Amino acid sequence: MFDPKKILVLASHTDDGEQGCGGSIAKFIAENKEVYYAAFSTCEQSLPEGFPSNTLETECKAAVKKLGIESKNLFIYNYPVRHFKSKRQDILEDITKLKKQIQPDLVLIPSATDMHQDHEVIHKEALRAFKHTTLLGYELPWNNNDFNNTLFINLSTDDIDKKIASIKEYKSQTNRNYMQADFTKGLARVRGVQANCEYAEAFEVYRFIIK
User: Fold this and answer.
1) Which of 36, 105, 104 is nearest to 73 (CA)?
2) How far, in Å, CA of 115 to CA of 126, rounded?
3) Of 127, 135, 144, 158, which residue is 20 to 30 A from 119 by alpha carbon distance?
4) Rounded to whole angstroms, what are the CA distances from 83 to 36, 45, 104, 145?
C-alpha cells in the first residue's frame, strides 16, 4: 500500500495549492503526515489596486495555517508572475534544494495540461527534479484544456470545510469566480460521485513508485 510520510506541494502562485489540493492537504495532516508547501510567486504585479505588495504572502501564511501546515514547512519565493520561463534554471535549483532538504515521498504539482505559463514551468521542472519520486498533478479547471483524472483522494466534510476556510483567507482574490465556496464544494462533489464517495479531489498520475 502506498503510504507517503512526507508530502511536498509545489504551487506556482500563492493559492494554487489550496485550490488544487487543499482538501488532500487537510486529510494528510489529519493523518499525522508531514506536509510542506512551496509557492514560487506572491504575484505582486497582479494584485488589485490598493493592496500592499505583501498581501498575498500574508494571505498565504494564514491560508495554509487553516489547513494545518506548520509555518516552518512553508516556503515562499518571489519570482515575477508570468515570467517563470526566463527564471527556469533558478526555479529548478530551488526545487532541487527542496528535494534534498525534505526528501518527500509524494510531490503534488500543477497539471500537465495547465495553460498558465508559470504553471507549465513548475510542472516541467518538478518532473526533472523528482525522477524517483511519486508525482501527481492537481487540477485547476479554469486553466485546464483537459484533465486525465486517473487518481482520486476521498475527502471528509471536515477536509472540504478546511479547504474552503483556507481559500477564504485570500480576501484580495474574492472577485474571482473560482474562489467561491460553492464552486469548491461543487467540484469536490463531482469528483466524489466519480469516486463513489461524498467528496474527493482528482489527480493526474505522472509517476507512481511503491517501495
Assistant:
1) 36
2) 16
3) 158
4) 24, 11, 27, 21
Q: Which residues pair with 204 in a beta bridge?
A: 137
Q: What angle do CA 49, 51, 56 make, to 5 degrees?
A: 120
Distances (CA, A) of 79 to 14, 39, 45, 63: 11, 9, 11, 20
Predicted TM-score (pTM) of the model is 0.96
**The residue type at 187:** L
What averages of pLDDT result for each successive group of 10 residues across the chain (211 residues)?
A: 92 97 98 98 85 94 98 97 96 98 98 96 98 97 94 98 98 92 98 98 96 81
Q: Is 50 left (phi over 0), alpha (psi -120 to 50) or beta?
A: left
How far apart, in whole angstroms, are the C-alpha atoms of residue 12 and residue 27? 22
Which CA distances in Å does 52 have to 39, 59, 172, 174? 18, 11, 10, 16
Give the fold, CATH level 3, of 6-207.
Rossmann fold (3.40.50)
- Rounded CA-CA distance 131/113 in Å is 19
Would you list the DSSP string of 81-100? Answer: TT-GGGGHHHHHHHHHHHHH
